């Protein structure tokens, strides 16, 4: 059986990574691998229940460490129920957010200790990292403007954060990018969606499907 391929999609709010992931699906079928898509927090019933608690706009009293631990708990359940089975079956697994989100949002954004987050991520995942992480980069003002224009999108607790918080998150991602040069590839998400999808497809094809 072929080894599973684990690709994660990361980026600040409004980068459009979820739209890119969905538009990539029909184009990835050409490679003949069974494709599985999922998201964090969520992807399985228990983790989706945790997601509702994390993102509920009414939970404004949530402590930063509580938030981090909820994400980690959801990640562990998601790993056991969805990620590991997909990889064991040799599937092409596309995950909307994973370990880097905790570093960017709870580490850089909330100011929690980076070593603690790294330890918790490692604990939750048993050290598993993606084969490839596509980081969709966009400046904060443009990303938040996209969210404001999307009238169909529900406003969650993280959307209510300050611009400064979102700036720190983006800087967090850029910091990870410098350290994870083999795993993480930066894509300009300010381009039209079709161009972003084409760039993402080219990276995946070159990394996994070219001789």
From TrEMBL:
Which transformation does this protein catalyse, written as a reaction? dTMP + ATP = dTDP + ADP
Which residues take part in binding ATP?
Answer: 11-18
Which superkingdom? Bacteria
Tagged with keyword Repeat: no
Q: Which residues are in the Thymidylate kinase-like domain?
A: 9-199
Ranges in a coiled coil: none
Q: EC top class, in one word?
A: transferase
Please provide, alphabetically and separated by semicolons, the GO molecular function terms listed in this UniProt record.
dTMP kinase activity
Provide the alphabetized UniProt keywords.
ATP-binding, Kinase, Nucleotide biosynthesis, Nucleotide-binding, Transferase
- What Enzyme Commission number does this protein have? 2.7.4.9
The record ties this protein, via Pfam families, to:
Thymidylate_kin
Q: Which SUPFAM superfamilies match?
A: P-loop containing nucleoside triphosphate hydrolases
The family annotation for this protein states: Belongs to the thymidylate kinase family.
Q: Return the PANTHER family for the record.
A: THYMIDYLATE KINASE, UMP-CMP KINASE 2, MITOCHONDRIAL
What is this protein's function? Phosphorylation of dTMP to form dTDP in both de novo and salvage pathways of dTTP synthesis.
The protein depicted here goes by the name Thymidylate kinase
Q: Which organism is it from?
A: Streptococcus gallinaceus
